[in-house]
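How a chain folds remains the central question behind the approach discussed here. This step matters because it turns folding into a mapping between discrete strings. The sequence in question and its structure tokens are set out directly beneath this paragraph.
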Amino acid sequence: MNAIHTDKAPAAIGPYSQAIDSGAGIVFVSGQLPIDPATGTFPEGGVQEQTRQSLTNAKAILEAAGLGLQHVVKTTVFLADMADFAAMNEVYAQFFTAPFPARSAVAVKTLPKGALVEIECIAAR
């Protein structure tokens, strides 16, 4: 296993890696909060702006692993409120092209730091 790290995404806020390259052609990207790595804060706005930042963070981590969003095979989207699903989905659709990755989207009671969305992904070489 090899830990992946980039300064173009927020540092881990706990005992975990931004991503792990399994060594078997699979990269697991930890859940990305919508933290702007330059400011350490969430972008202004709502779930769409936060979705854009979360996916931008995931993209930066994938790039550090030598991959791109086209390599993503599975995502999991955690929403603080399922009522935000359609708004999240509008932005999400701007980041991926067919064949789209498999996806789960779930509502959770709360997310770290009061985020509206967190997104994790799995990519294959």
